[in-house]
Amino acid sequence: MKLRSIRIAGVVVVVLFALQAWAQSPNNPLDIALLAWYPGNISALFTANLGPDPDELAFDGANMWIANLGTNTVTKLRASDGACVGTCVFTVGNGPGGMAFDGADMWVANGQDNTVTKLRASDGTTLGTFAVGASPCWVAFDGAHIWVSNDASNTLTELQATTGAVVNAYPAGPAGTPYTEGLAFDGANLWVVNFVTNSVPGSVSKIRAGDGSLLGTFTVGVGPSQVAFDGTNIWVTNGFAGTVTELLASTGAVVGTYSVGGPSAAAGGIAFDGTYMWVSNETPSTVTKLNSSGVIVGVFQLGPATNTPFGVAFDGANIWVGYGQGSHLPAAGVYKL
Question: What is the pTM of this model?
Fold first, then answer.
């Protein structure tokens, strides 16, 4: 069981605040940054201009960005057709993983540099590289600040989105939690995944964005990795259990824990499309679609079981899944479903 995303980058997290707001102001960059989308469906596979390890993904309102872990680059593809327009591959730091869009710029966590890189989304120009904690893995935007989960230091770093200046650093969970993973914003609070071991249930912590206060820590499944918000509830993938756990965002109470296809399904990335949750399963190379009650409505084979899907993101019309190179695929790629 590879489970790369559990240790390197946190889950492509996709948040829906209000479909109405998107319909009223489809070009509002903050709606884009806060991931307020609309649903849709189509399918394709893109392999050009990507590294051997397309890891996490993020959408900027027009383009899908893919972090290429193996080449220390990010790729920008036009979401409508997957095309590379002009220069579309940009160098970042070592070990790029989680990304977030702030309405104008793309932020990339560099897990092996202990930094984040800020790129101008329009042309990929590097606007700055900023020090954060040890092994940063995921990034979230709260409307004014960038938050970074630091895997090896069990901390969250808060930066000003305008300047990259560090506002503060906060504990990401209770003392003794060894690893910090996926990160999501619910409109008022940050939710950060705490991974312990591959045999012990982990947790998710709720942290107030206003001051970094820890509001609570809630037990989920074994090997939690990534997290997403559906407008009401928080969903966490449990990689070593083949499940997702749903919690009330208001209280942290567990609503339910649901299978994504059995214990062999190594649940990794997760994204919300306005109606359904989508979960990438690193084994056996599938993506699972669940309704709001946690019922599986589809499991889709992405390719040979030797290949590994990673991050998941929604572009307002389609789900995208990063797909690592395996023995049967000529090159790594990203699926558009």
Answer: 0.87
